[in-house]
Fold this protein.
Amino acid sequence: MTMSNSAHERADLSDKLRSLPSVDRVLSEPALGEAAARWPRAHVVEAVREELASARSMLSNGREASVTASEIAESAQRALEGQLRPSLRPVINATGVVIHTNLGRAPVSEAAARAMSEAAGGYSNLEYDLDGGKRGSRANHLESLLQALTGAEAGIAVNNNAAALFLAMAAYCHGREVIVSRGQAVEIGGGFRIPDVLRDAGATLVEVGTTNRTRPSDYAAAMGEDTAAILRVHSSNFRIVGFTEEPSLAELRTVADSNGNGVPTLLIDDVGSGCLLDTRQFGLAYEPRPQDSIEAGADLVLFSGDKLLSGPQAGLIVGKRSAVDRLRSHALMRVLRLDKAAIAGLSATLQHYLLGEAVECVPVWRMIAAEPEQLRERAEMWRAAVGAGETESSDSPIGGGSLPAETRPTFVWSLDHPHPAAAARALRGREIPVIARVEHERLILDPRTVLADEDSAVIEALRQLVGGLD
Ligand SMILES: *Cc1c(COP(=O)(O)O)cnc(C)c1O
């Protein structure tokens, strides 16, 4: 009797499936010894079952699969190791983009990182009054620093700047109108749209002026008895150039005060990046500072903690005492409150500014301040150590949520690579991923955003990459 081809195949397949080892057999493999010692048994058994099931399904689909007990044990061991690898991992930012939203925005200073770790790893007086030995308030830890740095009467912190804006809108503008220039009713990024935030907070958006030009009289004409606030939003991620006009904050103050019906109109300024230094000293465009907005008469000024401030993720709200206190006691404050580690990190970060040491101690400012000549030396040092590539002048973008289109001159290490995108992928695939740029078919690494203690890791990564080319 002869068998048809497909019958042969079926018999062959069932042979293969039968020859797959049992779970117990795989569990006795030395390759699993390490995992077996470390993981609860049920977990190891489950990993082995999954590897066996996947081998079975590959064979059934006519594909080749690892079928020996030691092969299954090895892949189960790898799968278990993979579960221990954290999803959130440190990377080396060699893109030159200083505030890189996808790479976690700003690194915090050493002092801030230490303070965050201490606050996280122990108890603290987060909500405890040490003098009285009774309940205190978490909202008070940052206030005196914020007052000193911005000249504001009061200050509080929430989870991020989006939360700060939502809180201000919910507390002051629910069921009422907020006047915003058409050029500022924008999307900030990641689907965060000003009109949506206002709507979700129960406020009615009243758009005035045009995309490129809005005058004080446009705001004045829109004021009425339902007007709760005038909101100014800094255009953090785009720029309208050319035939443009926006009123100054001082002009908006005058308009807000002119609301004739005795209902005070709040002037709220969302400045975005929380830039406490004068960016013009680094040859950059002027970036609005919270202290300037306070001086110009804003009732509330909102900004992020992790953009140009270079602290942990947070939203800071400074302004008039009565305006800030209403937010402090609002029910949403409990929803949006800041974590203790972030409070500790922010406090340490703000102290650098108070001591006038921000350019030396705060990573973002150290990076922005780095001169092309220093960066050329580092790029040259990389080139010499790697023994390949070139150095060339380029530009480092300041990046997301601040100073759109602004760059600082830099020197980069660059490589003429046959497959630059594949090279960039190989650098991303390392144990400590190195994130590079590909520009004009060249692989580019910018030392501006590489921390000093990361130089050797970058050199090692580039050596291996270049070595793989031979
Ligand atoms: C970045 C930004 C926000 C959002 O701040 P997060 O801290 O990311 O929540 C809001 N407004 C402006 C103008 C911004 O630039």
